[in-house]
C-alpha cells in the first residue's frame, strides 16, 4: 500500500539486502523520506496550584518551549511551516493565544499555528499530525507540541452540560463519568489490588528521584524564567524553573498504603497512585531526513508510526492495551523488539493492568518514572514523552521506543519512535 | 528461436502469466501500472488465433496486480492477487467488475493458486505474513495459516489437496498439512530452512568435490512443486540460485543447485511434460530452461569418503534473452507438443515461444 515500501522491497530483492523482512530491522532502516526529530524538549513540570509555574499562563509556557526549539536546533524559524499545539483545557481551544505565543517565541507571521484537543493524547496527536503533514508533502518542516496550565485552567468548567439526548444514550452518558470514579470501578472489576498499585506508584517516584538526582532530565528540560508570587510573603519575584517539583523522595509502597482512598471508602485509587495535576509544555521539531541533512540538523530520532483506538468509555484506562498491539500490527514489531515503553501513568491501576496484559516487563516501562511522580499536564504529556523517551534511548544506547497513553472518554493512542 | 509470438501491454508492466487449464489458446496476464509501485492494475485475457495474440477481455483494478490463477472448475473464471490486499474473481462473461471480492489480507497479496485436485478452493499469500484458504463461493476465508513474515508465494501440492506450501522472506519453505490437527502449529507439518547447511555429522559435497556449507539467508520469491515427483519442490529468490528439496528430508539440504542467474529469480515453474525440466524468470531479464540432473547419470565420485552425500548440480539447457526488462512471469502450456511457454516482463511484453528451440543440440 505504501509505494515506498514496495520500492524498497524491490530494491532489496535486487541488492540482496535482507532487511525488507519487516519488523525491527525494517524500522531501523534510514531512508531519505523518514520523518525525523531534530529537536525535542520540555519545560519542567510543576505542581498545579502551588508549583513554580502556578502564575504562568499556558501560552507563556508554550512560548518558552518553542523558543527553546529554535535555540537548540539552530533552525531558521522562517523555515518552519506549521505548528500544532495540543491543549485540553484552554477556552476556545487556545487557538488565539497559541498563535500569539509562536510570534513571541520568535517565529515570523508566515508560520501557521493550530491547536487540537484529543484529551490526554493531544501532545502526541499534534506530533503525529505534523509528521503526517510532512509525509503527505503538505509541509516540509513542522513542530508538534503540547501544553497545559492546570493551575490557571483546570476546573469544573472543563465539560459543558450534557443534553437530554446524550443522557438518554447509556454509553454516551458514560463519557462524562469522572476519571477517578471509573478508574476505581475498573480497578475493582479487573482485580488490581491496592498493594500492587501502591508498589507501582512508589516505583515511579523512586525511579524519578534517582533520575533527577543523576541529572537524567537535564537534556530534555528547557529552563524557563517566570514570575512567581510567594504564597507566604505575597512578594512576586522572577525565578528560573529547571526541575520537576512534584518528585518526592522517600515514597514507598508502605507510605502510600496509609493514604485514604479518594473515590470510595473501600477503594484503592488515591492521590499517591494517580497522576499529579501539573503545568508544563513540550515541543518536537519534525522534518524529512533529506531536509534535516540538507539543513545540517542533528537527527535525534525518527517517527515510525502511530495508532489510535476506541474502547468503552468506562474502561478508558485500557486504551494502551488496545493501541499498542495496533501500532505493532502497523509496523510488524513485537513487544520484544521494543527497548523502552513510555506509557502514561494516568493511574497506577490502568498502567499496571495494561503492562501486565501485554506482558511488558517492569524494567522496560517508564525507566525515569512517570506522571505519578512528576505530573500529567494533559495536553503536554504526549509531546513530553517524546523527549523523555528519545533521550533515555540515546543515553542507554538503545533504539526502539513506544509512547502510549489512555485517553478520557475511552480511547488509546500509541506511537513508535527510533532513537538515532 | 524462429517463431515467437508477441503481445504488448502498453502502460502496464506484467507480473504474472498463466495458461488456461481448459484451452490451449487462452492465457491471462496480471499487470500493473508503474511497475506495480503505485497505480492501477490490469488483467489481460488473451486468445491465440491465426491473426496472433488478441485481447479477449481486460479488467481494471484500483491497485497493482501481482499474480493470477485460473479457476479449475469454471473455464471462464480467474482470480487475481491485488496490491490492496484483496483477491478478485473475474468472469469472462461479466464485464468490468469482479464477480467476487475477497478482502482480508492487510497488505499486498502476492500470490494465488487454485486447488488442482478438489478444485473447490484457492489459496493466497501476502505481505501481511499469512496464507489464506478461500472458497470461491464465500467472501470470508476458510482458514488462515500464519507465516509471520512477507510470504511471496504459496502453492498446493499437485497430487494431494490437503498439502499447502509457502515460501517467505525469512528464507524458509513451509509445508502445511490440513489433515493434521490445528494444535498450536496451525497445520504446520514441515519447515525447510532453504539456506541452512544440511544437518548431520558431515557436510555433503558438490559435484566438483567442494563441500557444501549452506548460504546466507535470503528472501525466497517463488517456488513450485514437481509435477511427477510429489515430494520435490524448487525454490528461487534473491540469492539467484534455484534449489530443489525433498520435503521428506527437511534438514537434509537441497537435492540440486541450479546456478546461473545474475539477479534474483522471480518465478520458477516445473514442466508438466518432463520430470526433470524447469523454467525460471529473473530480474536479470533472462528466462532459462534447466534440468535438475535427476535423470542424468551421476558423475564419477572424486572423493573416497562415502559418508558424504552429494548435491547435484543441475544443468542449464537454454537461455531466452529477448526480454529487455525484468522477466517476472513464466508458465508452461499444458497442451501441444510439450515445449510451449509464455513469458512476461516489465518491458510490457508477453512472449510465447517453444522451449525446444532453446535446447542445445
UniProtKB/TrEMBL annotation, chain A:
The active site is at residues 120, 376, 406. GO terms for biological process: fatty acid beta-oxidation; phenylacetate catabolic process. Keywords: Acyltransferase, Fatty acid metabolism, Lipid metabolism, Peroxisome, Transferase, Transit peptide. Its EC number is 2.3.1.16. It is found in: Peroxisome. One of its GO terms (molecular function) is acetyl-CoA C-acyltransferase activity. This is acetyl-CoA C-acyltransferase. GO terms for cellular component: peroxisome. PROSITE patterns: THIOLASE_2 (PS00737), THIOLASE_3 (PS00099). Its cofactor is K(+). Belongs to the thiolase-like superfamily. Thiolase family. Its main location: other. PANTHER family: 3-KETOACYL-COA THIOLASE, PEROXISOMAL. Pfam families: Thiolase_C, Thiolase_N. Residues 298-416 form the Thiolase C-terminal domain. Pathway: Lipid metabolism; fatty acid metabolism. Residues 35-290 form the Thiolase N-terminal domain. The keyword Transferase applies. It catalyses: an acyl-CoA + acetyl-CoA = a 3-oxoacyl-CoA + CoA.
UniProtKB/TrEMBL annotation, chain B:
GO terms for cellular component: cytosol; peroxisomal matrix. InterPro entries: PEX7 (IPR044536), WD40/YVTN_repeat-like_dom_sf (IPR015943), WD40_repeat_dom_sf (IPR036322), WD40_rpt (IPR001680). It holds the Pfam family WD40. Its main location: cytoplasm. Keywords: Cytoplasm, Peroxisome, Protein transport, Transport, WD repeat. WD repeats lie at residues 102-144, 258-290. One of its GO terms (molecular function) is peroxisome matrix targeting signal-2 binding. SMART domains: WD40. Belongs to the WD repeat peroxin-7 family. This is Peroxin-7. It comes from Bombardia bombarda.
